[in-house]
Amino acid sequence: MTITEAEISKVLAEEGNMRKAAERLFLTQPALSQRLQSIEKEWGVQLFIRSQKGLTPTPAGELVIQYSNDLLVKREEIF
Question: What would the pLDDT profile of 27-44 be if each residue is shown by its tens digit?
């Protein structure tokens, strides 16, 4: 997982909304959706359940989000 992918996972979890996350990440909504699909394919699991009410992390998604957060914290400690 790259730092960018970790940031995407973190922001999606925080916002719980694809449109808001896309705005925060300075991406278009289709581009963000494609990046999320790519991350899910890389991990081999669905990370978020998508619905009209927004995004809900799956149990596997919760683990990946925690991994992403830990990765970003460790990166901050280094720099």
Answer: 999 999 999 999 999 989
The single-letter DSSP state of residue 48 is E
8 three-state secondary structure: helix
Q: Tell me if 4 sits within 8 A of 17, measured CB to CB.
A: no
* Contact status, residue 23 vs residue 59, Cβ threshold 8 Å: no
Exposure of 1 by Cβ count < 10 A (0-12 exposed, 13-18 middle, 19+ buried)? middle
Residue type, 19: R
Supply the pTM of this predicted model: 0.90
Asked if residue 18 lies in contact with residue 55, where contact means CB atoms within 8 angstroms, the answer is yes
Q: Are 7 and 72 in contact (CB under 8 A)?
A: yes
Residue identified by tokens 């927004």 is: 54
